[in-house]
Amino acid sequence: MTATPAAALLRVRDLKTYFVTEHGRGTARAVDEISFDLYPGETLGIVGESGCGKTVTSLSILRLVPEPPGHILPGSLIEFEGRNLLALAPPELRSIRGNQIAMIFQEPMTSLNPVFTVGDQIAEAAIIHQRLSRRAARARAIEMLKLVGIPDPEQRVDDYPHQMSGGMRQRVMIAMALICHPKVLIADEPTTALDVTIQAQILELLDRLQHELGMAVLLITHDLGVVAGHTDRVVVMYAGRVVETAPTTELFEHPTHPYTEGLLAAVPRVDTPRSRLQAIPGQVPAATAWPAGCRFHPRCPYAWEKCVAQEPPLLDAGGGEGEGEGEGEGGRHTARCWLVTEPERRQAKR
Amino acid sequence: MTFGSWLALVVAIVLSAEVVRWLRHRALRHERWRRFFRHPTAAWGCGILTFFIIVAIAAPLVAPLDPIVQPDPVRLKNHPPSLTFLMGTDVFSRDVWSRFAYGARVSLGIGALGALIAVALGSCVGAVAGYYRRWVDAILMRGVDIGLALPRIFIVLMAVALWDRLPFAWLTLVIGLTSWFATSRLVRAEVLALRERDFVVAARALGAPSSRVIFGHVLPNAAAPIIVSAALSVGNVLLLEASLSFLGIGVAPPRPSWGNMIADGALTIYTAPWTTLFAGLAISLVVMSLNAVADGLRDALDPRQDPA
Amino acid sequence: MTAPTLVAAPLVDVRDLVKHYAAERRWFGLGRPRPPVRAVDGVSFTIPSGRTLGLVGESGSGKTTVGRTMLRLQEATGGRVLFEGRDVFALDSGALRALRRRMQIVFQDPYSSLNPRMTVQETLREPLEIHGLAGTVAALLDEVGLDAVFAKRYPHELSGGQRQRVGIARALSVEPQFIVCDEPVSALDVSVQAQVLNLLADLQARRRLTYLFIAHDLAVVRHIADDVAVMYLGKIVERAPAAEIYALPRHPYTRALLSAVPEPDPKAKKSRIVLSGDVPSPATPPPGCPFHPRCPHPLKSERCRTQVPPLREVPAGSGHLAACHYAEQPMK
């Protein structure tokens, strides 16, 4: 599952999604210049905590952000197979949604329509995009149920969502998303609302399906454990920006940005004996008032004057300063931190 | 109309408009109240209600004559509206406008008090039923079912039959006591949901006595449906009072209420409609305004629309 | 079933706790009576003073119900809970109110655990007023690491982590000895989770508290629990000191739970045990061992399908309990 040197399937450049808030508190700059690439067949993880902008990023790709109060700023680019999704007319965009790029969400209970059967909902995408007849679509739906590992698919196809457990509903969502064999699957925290053992099942299913169907997966999560086990490359987000990008193994072995370091130290682990967790002090700032300079500096144990004064660009953590921003292709490791240029500052931890 | 009463009337109108404008200004700061004023009818409702309330409170100022005085029963009978008699005179040559102003006191007063009794009683019963559940709930709700099934008019008729002339206070009480059933259902539903919320469980875990939990935690958070229900109740009570007075078993003449003013003018409705018309119009306007305000309040107080 | 004997009586002693919910009858209550939902089906454990018992399970395991029935926030169907030797279920309302000071609870959802219409100050002052205590709101806020400026704020002006701290302060205000922590960090972000866990650990040391820490995440429990009990379908299936249960789990469910936790280490080639099937509902428990339909143990047999395995000490005298017919030969 390594990234191929082929062209990126999905290119996001300088994406900015802002929200207007009514309370006179200004604009919430939820996504503030995000760039990344997604290559065919790979799983790219976007990891961050609440308030970092990862969900808004995923919604922006398919233009699912509610238009007031949110809007995607001009100057943002989202290219899928060379076509700019932000410039498409609605009918063309609709032909991509569910068909070439599909999305699954966090809460399977609220993402499924309670008054339609599971089979109807799965078949819907096939009917719309592949113009199948009802009978053919139903047959495809049963095939998909089998593919996602639901027992007795011929009976289950007529069940309603409330008759199914959380894990099963999430499988149904996956079936709905994959019925048209999309090239890209965006999975927004697909296992957060599920029990641990079910989470393991669903993640294993996603791995298997990705292999079988050869699609690219954009996996959005806050769980570093999930990222470690199921992604090829990782993008770490904080305060609306990308703060670090690297291949997964590289990120966990050599975390560069202090936020990544902090997250890794704060995650409770089963394999280490009982110890005190190293918490990151402070909390995520509000999107209406990002700190000046480096957005992480108020919470950073290494911060010095430069960090307050000037926000660092994405720097090549494998060596000297990189040329431009956000070209996180292939095996490059970039981090938005002045420590890359002044590594000796790492010794002066506060 | 004397100069003084004209002045008072103009002041009342201007004051109502100012109050609405001031409320609107204050509302800008809070998301909830902005939601309220998003309904165009809500602002009008506020204004109209304020106007009638001012008229009711300041009745001695806006009304030139005493409402039961009959200046000239022969020649001033059924006089159409003019500059001296703003709303004309009725069959007994009484000034309709003066009666209207004092009648506002009576009708709105009964409306507010009756609704207060109804909502207070309904909230308590509903809260107790919803909080304690099981047999307490079963008994109380069966009582409510019976209450809802009984026709109110007949109960009041019975009350009137038992007491010859029903005093004003008793009338209000009877109306209040027969109007609380729907509110109790509403409050019970809200309380059933609220009692499972963690902060209510936390209060119990801290050792708070039930009364504190109900009145300190549950009811304040159930305020939204109670307030909306109160606004609508006032309208209901108003209509009930009007119906009763129209039938002759409500507010007893010569004291004016909007209901018995309608009755007074019923016989001459084609020849001298003003007696009935203005009172009827007022009742319609107030009830519609209350509904508009209740609608706005429902939106404003809906916690789901609050910013996270 | 007997608990391992201890030198001093434990602070909390739960014996055969049972909570059943009557199942709704079909046909608007006129149909045949249905078997009850056995949310908690005979749970026993003890917690010595100053220690933390981690109670782990997935949805439907009954762990939250255990916490709430222990505090009599819900009435149990059977069993006894002894706190300092006194039977909690036998207390009258006056004695219960006094006991409420000693046993407290911290909730999972920071968004619904605070009254939205009360400021932080009012929320914290209430328990002080109810019990006539002399403490101050400022001291409580300080103890949980919140600045005094938060006193005048409403819950919706606080972040999840801050609200959770207020919830902890509220529990501390009555000076309890025992706190049921009902998934206190599950709804929080990773960095905030660590802060709150550290706070709970600090408070335990400083105030000599005893915790029942309920969680679904074995990793979180690792960092705070001295002993761990794993629940499945209303029963405890394994109980042991923390170090042991992580090193050598003897019940296949514990083993599966451990392997299902995603570890932040890409190199960790875990022999992943992925359970098939769904978490069952306590309304329809399987016969025999409740775990047998999903059990991946290689020695699973007919015995598992028919006989309910008792919770027994394996090996004898070790203090490690497991409810499995093959606990002596645990899975690798």
What sort of overall outline of chain C do the alpha carbons produce when their principal axes are compared? globular
Major beta sheet, strand line-up of chain A: 7-8-9-3-10-11-13-12
Helix content of chain C: 25-40%
Strand content of chain A: 15-25%
**Structural class given helices, strands, pairing of chain A?**
alpha/beta
Shape of chain A: globular
* Cα-based radius of gyration of chain A, to the nearest Å: 21 Å
> What Rg of chain C do the Cα atoms give?
21 Å
Main β-sheet of chain C: number of strands, strand sense, barrel status?
8 strands, mixed
Count the strands of chain C? 12
Helix content of chain A: 25-40%
Taken as a percent bin, the fraction of beta residues of chain C is 15-25%
Distance N terminus to C terminus of chain C? 27 Å
Chain-averaged pLDDT of chain A: 87
- What does the oligomeric state look like here? heterotrimer
Order of helical and strand elements of chain A: EEEHEEEHEHHHHHEHEHEEHHHEE
User: What is the averaged pLDDT score of chain C?
Assistant: 88
Notable features of this structure?
heterotrimer; A: 350 residues; alpha/beta; 5-stranded antiparallel beta sheet; 12 helices; 31% helix; globular; B: 308 residues; mainly alpha; 14 helices; 73% helix
3D architecture notes:
- Chain A has 350 residues and is an alpha/beta fold.
- Chain A is 31% helix and 20% strand.
- Chain A contains 12 helices and 13 strands.
- In chain A, the strands form 2 sheets. Chain A has an 8-stranded mixed beta sheet, sandwiched between helices.
- In chain A, helix 4 crosses helix 5, helix 4 packs parallel to helix 7 (166-178) and helix 5 packs across helix 7.
- The two termini of chain A are 40 Å apart.
- Residues 319-328 of chain A have low confidence and may be disordered.
- Chain B has helices spanning 3-27, 31-37, 40-57, 59-62, 96-132, 134-149, 152-162, 168-177, 181-194, 198-205, 210-221, 223-247, 258-266, 274-301.
- In chain B, 73% of the residues lie in helices and 0% in strands.
- The mean pLDDT of chain B is 86.
- The radius of gyration of chain B is 22 Å and the shape is globular.
- By secondary structure, chain C is α/β, with parallel strands linked by helices.
- Chain C is built from 11 helices and 12 strands.
- In chain C, a hairpin with a 2-residue loop joins strand 4 and strand 5.
- Chain C is globular and about 60 Å long.
